[in-house]
Design goal:
285 residues
Length: 285
Amino acid sequence: MRRSVVVGLMVLVAAAAGLAAVLFLPPVVVDHDLGRTAVTANERLTAVNNVRTVLLQALGAVILGLGAYATWRRLRINEEELRLSRSGQTTERYSRAVEHLGHESLDVRIGGVFALEQIAGQSPEDRDAIVAILCAYVRGHSPWPPGRPGQPPADTPVTELWSLAVRANDAQAAVTALARLHAAGGAERLSLPRTDLRFARMGGLDLRGAYFGGATLMRARLQGTDLRDCFLEDVDLRHAELAGADLRGAVLTGARLDGAVADARTRWPEGFDPGAAGVAGTGVS
């Protein structure tokens, strides 16, 4: 309020000064310029009016400039207020989504996963943090060796495994969201070591450079999946579907691949012998 009053008084003073200058300054300027030159009253009046015209034009230009500056300042303030408002809304949505990840209801947890993915798409500066949160979520909710309610025992026969999307749909949703965020860009590496991803649906996903050390991907659906430069040391890939998958540059030391199925489109690390590792399928010798 005090600032508004001060600004208002300054505007009134400036307006009064401008009006006084237009009324009283032109005769002084004309008399100074004419000196002792004799002129008629009409000529003097014309000269005074010409000076007033010039002053009014200059005053108008100043007013336009001040108006333009005020408009620019208002726009900047509005942009800053909008940015702060959006930032506050993003923070609120972010906090609510993270809280949903710890909810007892599966549906709410899945909603939290997709809410975080949406926030990461709208706020790139939060993408790496969200990727780290979702990776931690998968590691905590689908650990290997299994230790959470609903996880099938480690010795469950491959033919009796339920899909990850059936037994832990929240973990499946998080893995899918992570792959989409990774494909969109970001510096945070997908880190899913020692996770239970048996019979996960991961076909066609972008998982380049992901860290899966010690995880189990037994019977995982990996058709057409980009696994370049992935760390797959000691990973259980038995009976995994690898048709069309790209594993160039992947580390497969200690990985179990017996029963995995590949085809002629599957790309392997240089020097790797899939046949000797127990991989079956078209194009595997």
